[in-house]
Amino acid sequence: MMEHTIRVAICGSNVTLAAKVAAEVRPLPNLSIDSYRWISSQSTEVEYTKTLKTAKYDLCLFCLGENWQSELAQIRNIPFYLRPTQLWLMFDATQSTQPDERQAMQSGALDLFSIPTEKDRLLEAAVRYQRAFDLEEHGGKRITIVMSAVGGGGASTVAAGLAHAMSKRFALKTLLVDLDLQFGTQYILHDLDPEKGLKEAFDNLNDLDPIALKTYTSHGSVPFDLIGVTPSQLLLDQDIPSGVLKKLIDLARPQYDHILVDLPSRMGVLTAQALTMATDLLLVVRQDVCSVRKAQQMVGIFLNEFEYSKERVGYVISQYQSKNPIQQEDISDALGIPCLGVLADEVDLVRKAETLARPIADHAPNSSLARTFSKIAVAISEVDESLLTPSVMSRLFSKVKLS
Predict the structure, then answer these.
(1) Cβ(316)–Cβ(339) under 8 Å?
(2) N or C: which terminus of the chain has fewer CB atoms within 10 Å of its end residue's CB?
(3) Which of 46, 16, 271, 280 is nearest to 140 (CA)?
(4) Alpha helix segments (H runs only) across 311-384
(5) Phi, psi at 173, each rounded to 5°
(6) Residue 334's Cα: distance from chain center in Å?
(7) Contact, 273 vs 245, CB < 8 A?
(8) Are 166 and 359 in contact (CB under 8 A)?
(9) How far apart are CA 112 and CA 104, in angstroms?
(10) How far is C-alpha 358 from the chain's CA centre?
(11) Nearest to 117, CA basis, from 88, 96, 91
């Protein structure tokens, strides 16, 4: 994916802080300070709107002063569609009172930094923003549906493996949504028994902001966020009000680089809602006639009824056996969509990892399954693997410090 230089505007009334921010931003890769926009501490809402919207930039760094509560109130008063779409708030770490993440989020900010920042934090945010910026150039953040051609086909295992690879290996902020309302397994796979999940989030959706939504997610020992129907509950499609899934996903999107949806292999209202929102779809297929025939039928529905292009649909083979008469080439010919990975038939390894409630890549990091999950994660998220490995990050930061 091609990288672009991010044009940065430094705004606000705190000139001293702005100079410190500029000193920290200048060495960062692919960020260029394009302009400075000053706002008086006595500025009106109209002046705030004019200043923040007339600057030509990709990223706005707003430097808060001592009167930051009033400044945030002015930003909140700007109509949502007129606020900067990419806003970071900066504040002086030595000031007596300081904003928190909820206040920043309520003002439409994507991130909040104290200056001087912790080592690596601004660099990591810049790398993450660069990735998000490039992704927006290619159609927006990813929402990937993972779905089996037949029940019990391994979609939940694949979705969990991908969420782990994206969040731990590639540092993508990842949300995994388990949409099996009756028999979802993601909480069980990760040994979680939360008090609230999807149902409670749906019930309180009108009162939630993106920060509050995170309180309905769980993660335990895994590096990604997870939300589903809690193990003690059972829901039906008709229990879910129309449109709430879209509202929840729209609320979650600013917080995450990638959203994965573990979708059961049956059609219903909620399934249709998810399919209309997804940017791409990953079909899990096994090497048997029933699975391949069902996958053919589903691909036809995706392409014809939901108007997916073939570039948006891929498949993986689950529990692959080299001696099976149905091979990858046969499945590709039958489906007419690309194969993104072949998962070896390592049932014993999967069962042991599930028994221990450990992600496969933690339980067996050098296994074929762990490597394939990483390969698929690269394919569906379009991450630049060389940019995100810790060794490269460390070398890059060393160059920044020395420059």
Answers:
(1) yes
(2) C
(3) 280
(4) 328-335, 347-355, 360-363, 368-381
(5) -70, 115
(6) 32
(7) yes
(8) no
(9) 7
(10) 21
(11) 91
14-28, 152-166, 381-395: segment of lowest average pLDDT: 381-395
H or E stretch at 34 = strand 31-38
| Residues 6+ positions from 344 with CB-CB distance below 8 Å | 319, 320, 368, 369, 372
Residue 177, both tokens: 């949504």
CB-CB contact of 335 with 315 (8 Å): yes
Give dist(CA 308, CA 304) in Å, integer. 7
DSSP string, 222-275: SSSEEE---TT----GGGSPTTHHHHHHHHHGGG-SEEEEEE-SS--HHHHHHH
Query: What's the pLDDT tens digit per position in 348-368?
Result: 898 888 888 888 888 888 899
How many residues comprise the chain?
403
Residue written as token pair 């039928």: 297
Q: Which amino acid is at 380?
A: I
DSSP state of 74: H
Q: Which tokens belong to 309? A: 């292009």
Q: Which residue has the tokens 């969420």?
A: 163
Which tokens hold the place of 193? 């028994």
Cβ neighbors of 377 (< 8 A, separation 6 or more) are 162, 165, 166, 169, 170, 383
Count of other CB atoms within 10 angstroms of residue 403: 7
Confidence check: pLDDT of 215 > 60: yes
Of 198-202, 296-300, 398-402, the one with minimum mean pLDDT is 398-402
β 258-263/225-227 pair status: unpaired
For 320, the enclosing helix (H) or strand (E) is strand 313-320
pTM of this prediction?
0.67
- Whole-angstrom distance, CA of residue 181 vs CA of residue 238: 11
CA distances from 4 to 64, 137, 335, 403 (A): 28, 10, 36, 21
Chain centroid offset of residue 403 CA = 32
Q: Which residue from 168, 169, 199 is spatially nearest to 182, judged by alpha carbons?
A: 199
Question: In the numeric block, which tokens belong to residue 186?
Answer: 């993601």
